[in-house]
Amino acid sequence: MALEHLFQGSALNAVDAKGRVSVPAFLRSVIERRGDARTITLAKHESFPALSAYDPAYAALKHSKIERLFEKQEGDADAALDYQQRNLLAFAATEEIPYDSSGRIVLPPMMRNKGRIDDLALFLGAGETFQIWNPKLLLAEPAMPEDMKDIVRFRLEERGIKA
Amino acid sequence: MALEHLFQGSALNAVDAKGRVSVPAFLRSVIERRGDARTITLAKHESFPALSAYDPAYAALKHSKIERLFEKQEGDADAALDYQQRNLLAFAATEEIPYDSSGRIVLPPMMRNKGRIDDLALFLGAGETFQIWNPKLLLAEPAMPEDMKDIVRFRLEERGIKA
DNA sequence: CGGAATGGCATGAAAACCCATTGTATCCCG
DNA sequence: CGGGATACAATGGGTTTTCATGCCATTCCG
Questions:
Q1: How many Cβ contacts (< 8 angstroms) between chains A and B?
Q2: pLDDT tens-digit profile of A19-63?
Q3: C-alpha distance from residue A14 to each of A8, A112, B91, B118 (Å)
């Protein structure tokens, strides 16, 4: 019960005037090795001011995790409610979007708003999933390890942007 | 749950103008015995001014360790944050790069910067993983055993470089 | 017909690939 | 045991491919 290919690495890409952004090739290659899809699912990250993103293979895994958890707690009075909540968050609170032949997605306005994504999108591999951040918000996040912030500063400088 | 083949030995290789380095053949052979991949993952070493490197098999091991730890503490509020941090450091703070048919990698600029690698790359086997150093920084490292420094001095002299 | 969304093309930079050369350790045969 | 031949490793250079991204054409809907 684990996905074979993992998301790793980081990249900083531009969001154009239409809200389009290239999904880094090294992330797309993981998606396409996990399955034959060319879509990603976006959700607000549960603990950070950022977006969580994944592919259909992980969505299926997440679904079965929720089902298994529910079956385990059977008989518990609160469990049914907990299940309904998890399930809605996992599916209703997400948007699935395709990327085109050149690897670009259009950030849906709601997600762009939830993740507070401006004109720069920072992609971070996180194993089974990846994340999309506004780099400025990551640098301002107290719970973020300093090593991680260093990497983001490097990515910004690489583009000639002063932090 | 341990890896069968271990990285051992040392070598000093040149970094060319394009940032390319040959990964020593004795390290590559371990990677290829552990799995069928021809890539290595680079990260800043957590305590030394150097890079830590490993293969996909070790990355998968690291991932499952993190997942197991998290599932054991489920429900704990602090555990969730700890998990997020570990996960990002393990995956977002790393870069996976392939080596070509002649066994060379290109050091990504960010990693070359983080590891302060100049025109010489010192490879050190470290069991489950291996390390890549700027030899000068190793010789200047107080926490490094003298016997280890002797080996590095030997590798430098071997190349006709005076320390 | 205007405006916005979508898909396709063009570009410049960077990365991956291929081939050639050198050096060194190994092997084989005299 | 010596010496040449051989195989593989490391490195240098050049060429092709891919990527991110800007730009334009087309479509779809008001």
A1: 73
A2: 999 999 999 999 999 999 899 999 999 999 999 999 999 999 999
A3: 19, 13, 22, 30
- Put simply, the answer to whether A147 touches B44 (Cβ < 8 Å) is yes
pLDDT in tens, B71-119: 888 777 788 899 999 999 999 999 999 999 999 999 999 999 999 999 9
Joined together, the tokens standing for residue B130 give 């291996």
* CA of A90, C1' of D27: distance in angstroms: 34
Distance CA A123, CA A121 (A): 6
**What b/e string do you get for A137-160 counting C-beta neighbours within 10 Å, with b at 16 or more?**
bbbeeeebbebbbebbbbbbeeee
Using the structure, give the distance in angstroms from the CA atom of B7 to the C1' atom of C27, rounded to a whole number. 27
Gap between the Cα atoms of B120 and A31, Å rounded: 36
Residue pLDDT, tens place only, A70-121 = 888 777 778 888 888 888 888 889 999 999 989 999 999 999 999 999 999 9
All residues at 6 or more sequence positions from B84 whose CB lies less than 8 Å from its CB, including other chains: A47, A48, A143
Q: Which residues pair with A22 in a beta bridge?
A: A104
Decide: A6 and B91 in contact? Cβ < 8 Å: yes
Instruction: Round to whole Å and give the CA distance between B93 and A151.
Output: 7
With b for 16 or more beta-carbon neighbours within 10 A and e for fewer, the B53-64 pattern comes to: bbbbbbbbebbe
Neighbours of B118 (CB within 10 A): 12
